[in-house]
Amino acid sequence: MVITGASSGIGRAAAREFAGRGDRLVLAARCPATLAQVRDECRAAGAAVLAVPVDVTTPGAVAELADAAVAEFGDIDVWVHTAAVMAYGRFDELPAPVFEQVVRTDLLAAAEVARVALRRFRAVSAGTLILTGSVLGHITAPYMSGYAAAKWGLQGLARTLQQEARETPGVRICLINPGSVDTPIYRQAANYLGRVGRPPPPIATARRAARAIVHCADHPRREVSIGRLNVVMRFGFTVLPGLYDVLVGPLMRLAGLSNQPVASHDGTVFAPNPDGEAVRGGWLPGLPQLVRAVSGATATAGSAVLRRLR
Ligand SMILES: NC(=O)c1ccc[n+]([C@@H]2O[C@H](COP(=O)([O-])OP(=O)(O)OC[C@H]3O[C@@H](n4cnc5c(N)ncnc54)[C@H](OP(=O)(O)O)[C@@H]3O)[C@@H](O)[C@H]2O)c1
């Protein structure tokens, strides 16, 4: 299994899931230090792992990664591509190089991964490519123009590749389309909006998305949607575009942006930020917070009942 984007969020959660099954893994992302950490986690879980620091937007880098994978393990059965960056800002206020690097990373590098992987898969009539799109490949929201443009492009690319793959039995292409997932991508994003972005509810865990990826590796499917509201949003966007466009701006400002102010910055668009990399983004409460919240609520309710009884 090759995983590009393995150092954080969904890709890192997928690496853990595959490692738990003892799969042989080639992990790639830009930051060598975080990648080494993920490699050690996966080895501890029982997997044989090769970590290869790679910027997927560097010409020739993806082909070199494939060569390294084949040299280490003999062949590539599954390639999971989750690497992506994001940028918030009105289109006319976003610096052009930021917009272009988002498209380069999220669309053109995914195309390069597909090109390298499919050439190898076709030669042996076997292999599964799992690309990661987004619900924003079917709908749009303000302030995410580069990301939405790239994910719409990826949607078109994936469908085309699926049609072409009908001529190559044994080669499968899957597209995973998450809605909101609790990963660091929202804080890692470039921001020219003044407010930190956040995932609008309902929010899935990175583990849930990772399990969908693992399931696709074993049972390839054309498209997998993760998120209970994805269908509703797609319906509104397609069937009621006028109403959708009236509502999406206010809803985005309410649910898709936090009140936390932030100075303009390029996030991880051009370079990684190891301090921000993790499986979880902290948008969902973890077990300790849940226990604290439940015990706090129980204590408050208990003392209210006692006061009434007295
Ligand atoms: N989280 C969500 O709510 C959500 C929703 C819909 C779709 N998605 C999609 O799910 C996928 C995973 O996102 P995530 O939320 O898990 O994001 P994340 O936590 O920010 O992880 C992104 C990964 O991509 C790597 N990466 C970024 N640029 C790269 C480059 N140029 N070369 C190589 N690796 C690069 C990052 O590592 P380095 O920075 O070290 O390179 C990191 O490992 C993306 O395709 C995203 O669009 C996420």
Automatic annotation (TrEMBL):
Protein name: Short-chain dehydrogenase
Keyword Transport found: no
GO cellular component terms listed in the entry, alphabetical order: membrane
Keyword Oxidoreductase found: yes
GO molecular function: oxidoreductase activity
Record-stated family: Belongs to the short-chain dehydrogenases/reductases (SDR) family.
Positions of the Ketoreductase domain: 2-184
Keywords tagged on the record: Oxidoreductase
Signal sequence residues: none
